[in-house]
Write a structure and sequence with these properties.
The protein has 13 helices and three strands. It has helices at residues 30-33, 37-64, 71-99, 108-140, 142-148, 151-168, 172-175, 205-236, 242-270, 278-294, 297-305, 307-320, 329-333; strands spanning 17-20, 176-185, 190-199. Strands 1-2-3 form a three-stranded mixed beta sheet.
C-alpha cells in the first residue's frame, strides 16, 4: 500500500484520511487484505456458538431448579446474561462490519456496540466481584451471613449491579465514533470510503483518560478485591479439599488472562504505541478477541468442575429431552439431596448458610461439589 503525500496523512488517523493504493476495491475484501480475517471469523463463530448455547443452558438450568436457587446461583445467572449481551450484540455487529463497511457513517451503531460491550464487561466484573464478596462473607463470617446473604438482599444487589454497569459505561460513548478512511487510485479514478469504529484521537487527551478509567473499574479495583476475598477464603478452606482451591484460583486466572491484556493494550495505544507494526497489530487483534473467548468459558468450567451442575443438566434432559431416556433416573434422583449432616467440615456451596468449622446441619444442593 502506497501513501500519497498530497493527502491528509497523519497519525493518529483523523477525519478525512486518504490513502493511495493500486487496487482500492481490495479494501472491500477483508479476507484478502487482512491476514487475521480467518482466525478472527473462526474465533467469532466458535465463541458465539459455544457461548450462546452454554449460557442459555446455565440460565435455564439454574432458574428451573428451585432447590439450587440461592444468592450465588443468581449472581452466576446474571453473569451469564452479561456474557449473552456481549455475544448476541457485539460479535454479530463486529463481524458484519467486516463485510458492510459504509452502513454506519453517523456512528450510531458504533456507539451502541461499544456501549453494549462496556456494559457487558462491567456487569460481568461486578457479578464476579459480588460472588467473591458473598463467598467471603459466608466462609469467613458464617454467622453474620445468615442475616446478610439473603435472597432479598441478593435481588437488591443484582439490581444495583446492572444500574451501576449502565452508568459506568456511559463515558465510552463520548470518544467512540466512526472514522472515515478514503482509499483511491487517481489513475483508475476509483474511490472507496470505509468507516471504522474508532476513537477520534488515539493518543493522549480524553481517550487516554477513559482508557485508564476502564482499566481501573474493569480490572485493577475488581482484581484487588477478588484477590483479597479469595485469599481469605483459601486460608479458611486450606484444610479442605484441593478442588475448592483449584476452582478459586482458576476464577482469578481466567479473569486476569482474558481482560488484563486488553485493558493494558488500550492504555498503551492511547499513550502513543503504534499498532501499524505487524507484530503489534497481531497482538492487539489477539487481545481484542480474549473477552469474547471469556464469555463462553464459564459454562465449560461449570461442566468440568461441578458434578452438581452436570447432575442438574441430566435431570433437565430426563424431563424435557426424549433422547436422554437412557439415563438411569434412579441414580440421578438419588443424588438430589445430601444427608442432613454432611461428612465434611467445610463446604463451598451456593447456599449462604455455611457454618465454619462444623458440620452442615441441613440439606444442601452443591454447585461446586467438593
Amino acid at each position: 500500500m502506497e501513501m500519497d503525500n498530497t493527502c491528509n496523512i497523519s497519525y493518529p488517523p483523523s477525519m478525512g484520511e486518504c490513502i493511495s493504493m493500486d487496487n482500492p476495491e481490495d479494501m472491500l475484501k477483508p479476507w484478502f487484505i487482512n491476514p487475521h480475517f480467518v482466525p478472527i471469523m473462526i474465533t467469532h463463530a466458535l465463541t458465539f456458538l459455544v457461548g450462546v448455547i452454554g449460557n442459555v443452558i446455565i440460565i435455564t438450568t439454574m432458574t428451573r431448579d428451585k432447590s439450587s436457587r440461592n444468592a450465588t446461583s443468581m449472581f452466576l445467572v446474571s453473569l451469564a446474561v452479561a456474557d449473552l449481551l456481549l455475544l448476541v450484540v457485539c460479535i454479530p455487529l463486529e463481524t458484519l462490519h467486516y463485510f458492510v463497511v459504509t452502513w454506519d457513517a453517523e456512528g450510531a451503531i458504533c456507539k451502541l456496540s461499544s456501549y453494549a460491550e462496556m456494559v457487558s464487561a462491567v456487569a460481568s466484573v461486578l457479578n464476579l466481584t459480588a460472588v467473591s464478596l458473598e463467598r467471603y462473607i459466608v466462609i469467613v463470617y458464617p454467622m453474620k451471613s445468615r442475616s446478610f446473604c439473603t435472597m432479598s438482599n441478593c435481588r437488591r444487589a443484582l439490581f444495583l449491579v446492572w444500574i451501576v454497569a449502565l452508568i459506568l459505561s456511559i463515558p465510552v460513548t463520548i470518544t467512540r465514533s466512526t472514522v472515515p478512511f478514503t482509499y483511491y487510485n487517481s489513475d483508475s479514478n476509483i474511490t472507496i470510503t470505509i468507516f471504522y469504529c474508532w476513537d477520534g484521537d488515539e493518543r493522549g487527551g480524553l481517550p487516554f483518560v477513559i482508557a485508564v478509567y476502564q482499566c481501573c473499574i474493569m480490572f485493577i479495583f475488581p482484581c484487588l478485591l477478588m484477590v483479597f476475598c479469595y485469599s481469605r477464603v483459601i486460608k479458611e478452606l486450606w484444610i479442605s479439599t484441593k478442588a475448592v482451591i483449584k476452582m478459586l484460583i482458576l476464577v482469578i486466572l481466567l479473569f486476569l488472562v482474558c481482560w488484563g491484556p486488553r485493558v493494558i493494550m488500550q492504555i498503551l495505544i492511547k499513550h502513543g504505541l503504534t499498532f501499524y507494526s505487524p507484530i503489534i497489530y497481531s497482538i492487539r487483534v489477539a487481545c481484542m478477541q480474549l473477552p469474547f473467548v471469556h464469555s463462553c468459558l464459564n459454562p465449560i468450567i461449570y461442566s468440568l468442575m461441578s458434578s452438581n451442575f452436570r447432575r442438574m443438566i441430566l435431570q433437565s434432559c430426563t424431563k424435557h429431552c426424549s433422547c436422554c431416556c437412557f439415563i438411569d433416573r434412579r441414580r440421578v434422583s438419588s443424588r438430589r439431596g445430601i444427608p442432613s449432616t454432611a461428612s465434611t467440615n467445610y463446604e463451598l456451596t451456593f447456599n449462604s448458610e455455611v457454618i465454619r468449622g462444623g458440620p452442615v446441619t441441613r440439606p444442601f444442593h452443591l454447585f461446586y461439589n467438593v
